[in-house]
Each structure stands twice: as C-alpha cells, then as structure tokens.
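Entry 14. Ran structure prediction on the chain below.
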Amino acid sequence: MKKTVVIYGSTTGTLQAIAENIAEKLGVEAIDVANLDSQVIADHDNLLLGTSTWGAGELQDDWYDGVNTLKDTGLAGKTVALFGTGDSESYPDTFNGALKELYDAVQAAGANVLEGVSADDYTFDDSEAVVDGKFVGLALDDVNESDKTEERIESWLQAIKPSL
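Output, structure tokens:
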C-alpha cells in the first residue's frame, strides 16, 4: 500500500471515531481536517476523506477550509476514497449529501476517486451522493443503523485496498 492518510471532519466525535477505526485497520494516521495543509497532501499518495452531513446535506464545518486546501494544492496523481455519516431517519431527503460536495471538490482538484458502495440495503428517500445506484463513497448511518457500520467499513476497505 502506498503512503495513505485518513482525513476527517467531525463535530460530535462520531465521524472521528469511525475515521480512527479505518486508520487503525489500515495501519495509517488519522488527522483532523482542521490540521490539513498542502504538505500533508504532498506527503501522501492516497487520501481517505471523511465528513459528516449536516442540515440539508452540508459538509462538516471544518471541511470548507479543507476543500479550499485540496483545490489550492491540487490532487493530480492522488487516489481518493470518500466516507461519511448521515442520519437517514431525520434527514431522509439529504442522506449523506455532504459526500457529493466532497466528491465534486476532489474531482475538480484532479483526483482519481475510487468507486463507492451500492445504495442497496440502505433506508433513505434521496441523496445527491448517489450516482448510478452507488454512493460516491462509503455512506454510514451510525445513528439508525449502527449495527451495520462495522460490516460496511470492512467490506468497503476490502474493495478499495487493491487500489491503495
């Protein structure tokens, strides 16, 4: 596996715990997006980016500066995988919508974005993060479907590891 880092934005700590779990499974570092700079990007070939979704599909607050750093630095030659959390019961129309915002930003910055997971086996009404029947990354609902979180992480990591 090439040099990989997990970068997360978390307000309540839920996504931080998930990011640290992912990083531990891969044997890599997890850093808060508030500490992201161009050197972190330059030092890594693979970036696993995680955000929680707020309100009507918005990014976690710290990601707004993080997205600017990604765009300003550029991601040409970098491999990116996305993961995020949302609440499918309280926000069924914007479930994990922040993933799409992050996806659009890394695409625009020139990243090679790894394929996401199937939207099957999820309960929600709509999500901008679903393209052609798949989320643009790993979508998690640790509020209403916490019993599926670990299995979803494991399955996703097995799918993306060959590309890292």
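The mean pLDDT is 95. Will compare against last week's run tomorrow.
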